[in-house]
Amino acid sequence: MANNKLSPVAVALCVLAAVALAVSIFVPLWRIELDAPQYPEGLALLIYPNKLSGDVDIINGLNHYIGMGTLHADDFVEFTVLPYIIAFFATMSALAALVRRKNLLLITTILFVLFGIGAMYDFWQWEYAYGHNLNPNAAIKVPGMAYQPPLIGFKQLLNFGAYSIPDIGGWLFIAAGISLLLASILTIRKPKTSSSAITVLLSMALLSAGCGNPSPEPIAVNQDQCNSCKMTITDERFACEIINTKGRVFKYDDLECLKSSRGNLEVLSVWVQDFNATGQWIQAEKAHYVTAEALRSPMGGNTAAFATLSAAQHYAAPLQASVTNWDNKKP
Is the pTM of this model over 0.90? Predict the structure, then answer.
């Protein structure tokens, strides 16, 4: 029956999903990166559908000291079955495109979404067990400390920063899921050509909105350390942060410290504290700055940031100081 057939757009999306899934079998699905002062180049654990790669031996050696289990692909049944599961969904997507049956597409999409949710839960369980089931006789043991890596994003584990994110295969996997969902939406809604484009654009916009840029973190006064000078941050009014392209937050007690390390980072955004509103962050490019000896900031930068030009001018007037912008302050 004609009304049981997929539209050309839905067919193309199914083909895209099939190709993406087929390629994802041969490339890393996920990566966990570790960085610390003693490893300036960083360490990476690459998770393929059927194996582990990267700096596995070095990571196993480090984990031994804190009582974490060693990583061996043979210990995970997932590495045996996952390539076949991905191949199954690639075949189902291709078959849906070939026979152009709506029911086959919807079944494939539902199963794929359920599998994706189950796979992430399984990954979280593995990370939980890996970070909590520690050897009580380990050389380094911090009471109450768990070493569970983040499911996605950044987490500080002692002196190591752990960053978890999809790799090439993971992004292909996500692209396949989006393609199948869009094809199913177009199939169910039966849109006209113009409304099809709108539906696709709205769906992509919603997906992008859900992945928004990372935000600055609150400063724990008298606890957090400056990432540059290693001094404890004692005056939140002068604190500032850099968020790098991986989403990691670097905290500083003064703009001078931020300047000294900014050139070594891949910067996504820079944030400064509003001098008049403790705890309120301003994007560095939007702030107004007053520099004066009377400010006495921790590392001698003696610069305060304000959210509005009028607030900066009001503070600067009795000090006979000028008001500048980020172009005058950035390194």
Answer: no
